Amino acid sequence: MKFDFPQVDLPSEIVAWTDVTEDILNLYKQSCRLQAGIFAVCIEGSMKATINLIDYEIKENDLITLLPGSIIQFREKTERVRLSFAGFSSGCIGRVNLIKLLLGAFQKITEYPVLSLNKEVAGYFKDYFALLTRLAYNEEIVLIPELTEASLNSVLAATRMVYKNYSQQERKSSRKEEICKELVQAVTQHYTTERKAQFYADTLGISLQHLSTTVKQVTGKNVLDIIAYIVIMDAKAKLKSTRMTIQEVAFSLNFPSASFFGKYFRRYVGMTPLEFRNS
Predict the structure, then answer these.
(1) DSSP H or E segment with residue 224
(2) CA atoms within a 13 Å half-sphere pointing along the CA-CB vector of 63
(3) Global confidence as pTM
């Protein structure tokens, strides 16, 4: 699967920073696709950004949650802006099952990657990101996988909590955006058994042509890309964090055989399941 967007990962399992300014954000004015997971809080100012081809204005105390696969582009700043953030590499993210850990919040995060927090809650995230910054840059501390995963789990738990307790953004979505959100919700519910685009068109009650055209216009991806993103994320988590055999992983995702699963996985990841497990 080839995309026009450059792929961006992190150089280490955890990268955290308490003072990201517009000077750094200006380096990402070109669209890119994240392989890592990024969690950030705006602590000063405001800025405009495009996330998955939808425009957002990020303001003070906003939480920004960018899951792997997100397409991002930072646009012109409206005033001085400062962010505090923690990022986890694709390797760290790949060892957990985001869908399971985020539970019902996964769908909301994909729909609303920018969420307004009150000052106190935003401060909690800022304080934890500051702690991760000290850990990440302390040469006397070895960040073993268990520690990085525990840090990721803590951030995911906090993110899940705020999405559960806070109402959805008042920002109105277009009908095309709503269709894409409904597609993601449907795929999240049925990806282990249904991978045909026609099924999801029928589920949403629209024609396949309308669904395909809409998804392409809004996200730049096709329907099968959306389905594959969810399937592959679950497969990666099982390959890295369980002792399941390749065949067991294949059957858990309702592939007819390990061979068929291997071809599907290689198509979207660029390596076999065994190569990924050993990487």
Answers:
(1) helix 223-241
(2) 29
(3) 0.66
| Distance, CA of 218 to CA of 220 (rounded, Å) | 6
In DSSP notation, 72-88 reads EEEEEESS--EEEEEEE
- The CA-atom distances, in angstroms, between 257 and each of 162, 187, 241 are 40, 21, 21
**What SS3 state is found at 37?**
strand
Pseudo-torsion of CA 190, 191, 192, 198, nearest 10°?
A: 80
Asked if 42 and 82 count as a contact pair (C-beta separation under 8 A), the reply is: yes
Tally the residues of the chain: 279
Strand (E) or helix (H) holding 245: none
Q: What amino acid is encoded at 151 in this protein?
A: S
**Tokens 């899951």 — which residue?**
67
Per-residue pLDDT of the chain (279 residues; tens, 9 = 90+): 333 445 678 889 999 999 888 767 766 666 677 889 999 999 999 988 888 767 788 999 999 999 988 878 787 655 688 999 999 998 899 888 887 788 778 878 887 899 999 999 999 999 999 999 998 888 888 888 888 999 999 999 999 999 887 755 444 567 888 888 788 878 888 888 999 999 999 999 999 999 999 988 887 788 998 899 888 878 887 888 788 999 999 999 999 999 999 999 999 889 999 998 888
Q: In sequence order, what are the residues at sequence separation of 6 or more whose Cβ sits closer than 8 angstroms to the Cβ of residue 9?
A: 34, 35, 36, 89, 90
Rounded Cα distance, 48 and 57, in Å: 4
N-term to C-term CA, the chain: 20
